Amino acid sequence: MYNCSGPEYSKLRQILAMLRLRMRPVGPERYQVAIGQLAEGQGEDGEAVQPIPEAMLVFCGMNQALLNQVLEVIRVANLPPIPLKAVLTPSNREWTTLQLYEELKREREAIAGAEKGQG
User: Fold this and answer.
1) Which end of the chain is more exposed for a tag (fewer CB within 10 A), N or C?
2) Which residues share a beta bridge with 57?
3) Domain ranges of the chain
4) d(CA 44, CA 18)
5) For the segment 74-105, what is each residue's pLDDT rounded down to a tens digit?
6) pLDDT score recorded for residue 119
7) Cα end-to-end span (Å), the chain
């Protein structure tokens, strides 16, 4: 979890706890640690960098049915938008937080550009 620690996200934390999912907030001092290591609770703190400016979730160790359930519950819970979501994969597990954030931003911009082209 990135930038999901304020009171506006207390409902999200409650939902994830009800589903018996562990949450691990990630601060800027851990952005240099590989996503896979963060998921396993490993990696050393480093020098804090500029925090990413948006909320971001990375889902780890979930099957497709559980992931779909979590996304649906988040959708209907009327939570603040969390536009950046990813699933830990063999391809991205060695990426740092900033690498993942940049990739998610590129994907979002590509989708927005494609949607504009269809309008």
Assistant:
1) C
2) 85
3) 7-118
4) 30
5) 888 888 888 899 999 999 999 999 999 999 99
6) 56
7) 34
